[in-house]
What we know:
The chain is α/β, with parallel strands linked by helices. It is 28% helix and 30% strand. Helix 1 (30-40) packs parallel to helix 4.
Amino acid sequence: MVDLVYTANASVDGYTEDPDGRFDWSEPDEEVFSFITELERQAGTYLYGRRMYEAMVYWESADPEEGYVREFAEMWRNADKVVYSRSLDSVSSARTTLEHDFDPEVVRRFKAAAARRITVGGADLAGQALAAGLVDELRLLIVPVVLGGGKPWLPRGVHWPLRLLETRRFASGVVYLRYRLDLDRRD
């Protein structure tokens, strides 16, 4: 069984989007972008909600000049994607499946059969996966900004003990934290 990992960029006060739904404040510099590319190189499949997919589908046709950005775009195109949305009728990227409902049992079976790690993107979908006990690791890039409100990176009411696996500090002030959910100690 492969791991399902939730990776997110968040403000110091814990938001993935500002009060206006924007996340341009979290745009990474070259050092952080290259690190994210290395992290995501292990992913075989991305699970997205509609809004995260609409942001990420940019990579389907992007033709960036910078090699480190081009590498991410190619990697994203080569991965499988599953989009969960009740409002979309179709998806525009290759290797992408549209599902109208998030079914934890289907994802559990998918984890058991997959050959490469699964990454869940988007706070709402990740919250559903967390509540269903599907997430194995949390990977958080804390961006040095305080937003004062917006969309939280974790849902309310979910309690999981965590075990710290890794930390890293970048020149830009971004801090990376990697945690394993301690399933044996869950309340």
